[in-house]
Amino acid sequence: MSLREDFLWGGAISASQTEGNYLSDGRKPSNFDFLPLTKDRLKPVYKDKEINLLTDMSDLVYPSRTGIDFYHTYKEDIKLLSELGINSFRFSISWSRIFPTGEENEPNEKGLAFYDKILDELDKYNIEPIVTISHFEIPIYLVENYNGWESRKVLDLYLKFSETMMKRFSQRVKYWIPFNEMNMVLHIPFIGGGIQFSETKNNLEIQYQAGHHQLLANALTIKKGREINPNFQFGTMLAAGKTYAYTSKPEDVFAALQSDKDNLFFSDVQVFGEYPIGSKHFFEKNNIHLVMEKDDLKNLKENTVDFVSFSYYSSACTSSDVEGLETVATNGFTTIRNPYLPKSHSVWQNDPLGLRITLNQLYDRYRLPLFIVENGLGTQDELTNKQVVDYYRIDYLNEHLKQMYLAVSEDGIPLMGYLMWGIIDLTSVSEGKISKRYGVIYVDQDDEGKGSKERIKKDSFNFYKQVIETKGRYVFKEEKNNERISSFSRKNC
């Protein structure tokens, strides 16, 4: 078995990390525009405090406000992507560009026109669009006035936004992802849900209430989308990665099982249409009382997803007793360092086999087509004489793509496609730094947004191009990989 003929090879970006121009053509700020270039950007925001993230500090850098100027360079960037040979591209819509405060009755036509132009360029090069409606972004007005997704009012405003997008692009977009990594509302609540905590409330209850509103918005978007165009395909999107037990001690194995159940909570609802069986006990134990309306559970049950899309960067590891154990960063949170995984040229541990394990885990659980919509390596690159020799990224991609291919060819996993995250360098979520680079296309810009913004193909560009041309088989050409690494070693002796 090999990859399907219509396999989607491509890349992914988000509006908040690339577009910049955050006040252009009628747009107003979003939550993401208030994330400064500081180590505190992922910490919970407390609205009880006099000074918090929503206090605009003139001496701070706000990377999202600059992005990589994709708002103006989209033609050049998409042309470069066409040279790469991709047949699909995932991007997101900036809610604040369409409904600047979220409460307008009519959408901002200039914002809609911008995404029309992106779709025009993609159509020119026969690149399939995959649209994320909400990628960690909500108008700041809704954060300040409704505490983001805690309020059911925001659900209604989102539905106006999602319906507007689906009607506008009903004949141009087939694949829709209503929310990016919905499970991250539990890890980075301000980013994932526009939530401000309170020192006097049950903040875990607020997070799950926001999660319920997002789950319902996801279901109702699917319901409306199928009325607009029955050919639409809708996917969940979760931050995935199998959790390993630190040891074979039964208590550690149970801790890993529980970690996986927690991580798959939201995708379980989106796929099965109902809350997991243990959620009632969990809510009672944590004094969580979700406010629901009469048809909420019915709508969740009747409007489930068509495919399971996910991000994978690394696996996780846990123990029943984490005290004294070394931790390492992963996608939006920290995990125990796995002693069987090597330290690497990355902020997280590389686990290529973990991708194959995760693919099997998700298909065994959900029995729906899978779609890898984010995978990649975020790390420092060195630009020398307009060249980036990123052998470490090539190795990361090669080993992960190899395991992906084996999951399809040997395990029989039905996989729709593979999208490399941050295929053009962008500002990272966790650090706000462009110097934590992901792309096969280098952007000449520093963490403060300064630079020529020139686009430069990295060595990994040619590697990924060959992978796509050979429909993935290039990753098994070990002799070519050895030549590549030997060449790098000679250059850097």
TrEMBL record:
<dbReference type="InterPro" id="IPR001360">
    <property type="entry name" value="Glyco_hydro_1"/>
</dbReference>
<dbReference type="Pfam" id="PF00232">
    <property type="entry name" value="Glyco_hydro_1"/>
</dbReference>
<dbReference type="GO" id="GO:0008422">
    <property type="term" value="F:beta-glucosidase activity"/>
</dbReference>
<dbReference type="InterPro" id="IPR018120">
    <property type="entry name" value="Glyco_hydro_1_AS"/>
</dbReference>
<feature type="active site" description="Nucleophile">
    <location>
        <position position="374"/>
    </location>
</feature>
<dbReference type="InterPro" id="IPR017853">
    <property type="entry name" value="GH"/>
</dbReference>
<protein>
    <submittedName>
        <fullName>6-phospho-beta-glucosidase</fullName>
    </submittedName>
</protein>
<keyword id="KW-0326">Glycosidase</keyword>
<keyword id="KW-0378">Hydrolase</keyword>
<dbReference type="GO" id="GO:0005829">
    <property type="term" value="C:cytosol"/>
</dbReference>
<dbReference type="GO" id="GO:0016052">
    <property type="term" value="P:carbohydrate catabolic process"/>
</dbReference>
<comment type="similarity">
    <text>Belongs to the glycosyl hydrolase 1 family.</text>
</comment>
